[in-house]
Amino acid sequence: MKVSVVGLGYVGLPLAIRLSLLKYDVLGIDKNPEKVNSLKKGKLPFAKNEPKLSNYFEKSKKLKNLNFSHSFRPLKASEIIFICVDTPVKKQKPDYTSLLSAVDSISKYLNKNQIIIVESTVAPNTTKNILIPRLEKKSGVKINQDFFVAVVPERIRPNHIFQQLTTLSRVIGISSPIIRGRLTSLYNKITSGEIDFTDLTTAEVVKTVENTYRDVQIAFANEIALACENLEVDVNVVRNLVNKSPYRDMHQPGAGVGGHCIPKDPWLLMSSVKPYSLNITRGARKLNDSMPRHVFDLIIKALQEQKIDPVKSNIAILGYSYVENTDDFRDSPTIALLKLLNRYKINFQINDPEVRDYSKKPPSQIINNSDCLVLMVAHDQYRNLNLDKLAKIMRHKIIIDGRNFFNRVYAQKAGFLYKGIGNV
Ligand code: SAJ
Predict the structure, then answer these.
(1) Model-level pTM?
(2) Fewer beta carbons under 10 A from the terminal one: N or C of the chain?
(3) 156 Cβ inside 6 Å of ligand 1
(4) Is 228 designated active site?
């Protein structure tokens, strides 16, 4: 069976490779010619450290059933077309530029009996009220008569992509029960997880709510961390003891919430619900977005305690990506922190072993002669940092711990002024 995947990012490319290994005849389409050319040459354009991605890509190349194109014309022959393009949020509203461009290109070649599967995360009611009418208008074919649509939101996380793609349960919203059989067969091959059928809008709500739920959980942890700073208790002790109580799952407070899912999906949900509601959701977003500012305030407070003029200081930032052990830095909290340091003309250097632009200098080189070490991402590679050795090369010994990464007592024994989120 011929299938097409439109959008070859963190979702689309692993999916295209998975489908190739499942022996489908796969066409990967992307608007970015450099990405298409890199893939045609057999080179991964990103996520080189993603477990299994390069290994599966090599296997797929041997099957010769995965091709790449910048043009949409060949998808005429596809029975199934997956849409996996980015759906960012700009000024708290959905930006569907890529999505609508993909839909318009697909509609030029849409023909009978094709199924379009929207894996991109969209606001509730987008597929029903925007995508389907646009497809019909631009193609002249009719929904549930000539073509069908499904909403199957992706459920993957960088650094765990194939593990999640092949095992997690999937929600499948369908435009008509007619396609239930075909989608059952398809997704039972893709994942060993359960597949649950529902309508198009419910599937969109489930996806945006599952990420909003996580954002609210993290915001609660951050709020309690700020309270613990005020109460001068260690939030990590509080969290560990709270979570010993049944049915509690207090999340990790931290330097902020980044990535292409959690900070975005609550705005997609809010954009589709009448105004002035979802107050907890809105408040959680605001609090999580304020955490990089809180890290900045802790830096300034620590420098002042040590009588260091911030504009004459040198800050060592560890971690640029949005979450540990990945090179993905979309919406990273560190980006927000750097904006503040730049605004107040405070010097800094960055190390991130996973991000090419910041992996050339080892941590020791950017920490050498610095006044303050700020841990923003809990990369495994930072686990071998020796605080006694770092204390000897720093000009002043301050640690701002954005991820409860270092042991406070140990850091203090090594002579550091230690301030952690919720543990100052
Ligand atoms: N974070 C915290 N405290 C926590 C957990 C995360 O501050 O307790 C921060 C992280 O540092 C990061 C951000 O939140 O900056 C997001 O982290 P994440 O672990 O949620 O990672 P994501 O963004 O890759 O989330 C994805 C989501 N999966 C999909 O959208 C399909 C999310 O729904 C999953 O729960 C998550 O992966 C996962 O853990 O699988």
Answers:
(1) 0.94
(2) N
(3) yes
(4) no
